[in-house]
Amino acid sequence: MKRILATLALVVASGFIFAGGAKSTLVKSSSSDSDKTVIRFTTTDLDGNRVTEKIFADNKITMINIWGTFCGPCINEMPDLGKLSAKYKSKGLEIVGVVCDVYDASQSATAKSIVKKTGANYRHLVTSLDVENTLLKDVQAVPTTIFVDSNGRQIGKTYVGSKSLGQWQSIIDSLLK
User: Fold this and answer.
1) What is the residue-wise DSSP string for 77-145?
2) Which among 54, 114, 42 is positioned nearest to 81, based on CA atoms?
3) Residue 28: predicted pLDDT
4) What whole-number distance in Å separates Cα of residue 9 and Cα of residue 3?
5) Which pLDDT tens digit goes with each residue over 67-114?
6) How far is C-alpha 79 from the chain's CA centre?
7) DSSP-assigned letters across all residues of 144-156
């Protein structure tokens, strides 16, 4: 009987812990751009450099790709994201990776190795509490990708799952118009 009650308590507690992040959109928004939530955070990149939401200011749009070192589809699309970063940089697009399972630059060896092997030579951020409470709070699967304007407001929709080079090019081209 004690085992049954202990198991039931564990199941109920797990439900409370995991239910908090179950929402359908990454960034709260409404019909007008001025009402969209601005993403604010402080974190570091894989090299330990301090990064804030100000990284968005110099770009027309920023593609934020949330990935994990454990995620095959994430890693498989990274070479294409590296190509897109080089191709679209002069057109006002920056790609930023957010490594959802690295919480400190001192834990970044695996992520750095993946970045090097895949040629994903764009900035990658580690997960801080700020990043967890803004960018990751509604993420239920990786890869998840969003686009933000120069003010850090989401534009377009949230994309869950990996895409081909051609699919990302179409999405980016439509957002840059």
Assistant:
1) HHHHHHHHHHHHGGGTEEEEEEETT--SGGG-HHHHHHHHHHT--SEEEE--HHHHHTTSTT--SSSEE
2) 114
3) 38
4) 10
5) 999 999 999 999 999 999 999 999 999 999 999 999 988 899 999 999
6) 16
7) EEEEEETTSBEEE
